[in-house]
Write a structure and sequence with these properties.
Distance between the termini: 61 Å
Oligomer: single chain
Helix content: over 70%
Structural class: mainly alpha
């Protein structure tokens, strides 16, 4: 009972905040691209919930499942074309930071 009441109050608060943001700033916080991102996240979550009953919980299995979730989520983000120019720029800067030698080889090969 308390969990359902809390959930309903959080949903109502989110709807009120959404309306206030839209009215005061004329910015729509939920765009079509965001729906693609949500869709890309829902599919792996549903698959994980389905696999939950078939997989025994160990540290190794949880690490494997987490890696599979991340890989599947990234693939879905790319397939739905949910990333814009800013996202790609951020990802490339992260790639430069963590893989500087590989990035330099790619730049010199072109």
């Amino acid at each position: 009972g308390a969990a359902i009441g809390t959930m309903i109050s959080y949903i109502a608060l989110a709807v009120i905040c959404f309306i206030q943001v839209r009215n005061f700033t004329s910015i729509t916080p939920l765009k079509k691209k965001m729906l693609h991102v949500i869709f890309s996240a829902v599919i792996p979550v549903v698959i994980l919930l389905f696999l939950r009953s078939y997989v025994k919980y160990t540290i190794l299995n949880l690490m494997i499942i987490t890696c599979l979730f991340v890989i599947f989520y990234i693939i879905l983000l790319l397939l739905t074309k949910s990333l814009d120019k800013n996202d790609i720029m951020i990802l490339s800067s992260i790639k430069k930071k963590f893989f500087p030698q590989h990035f330099n080889k790619v730049l010199t090969a072109e």
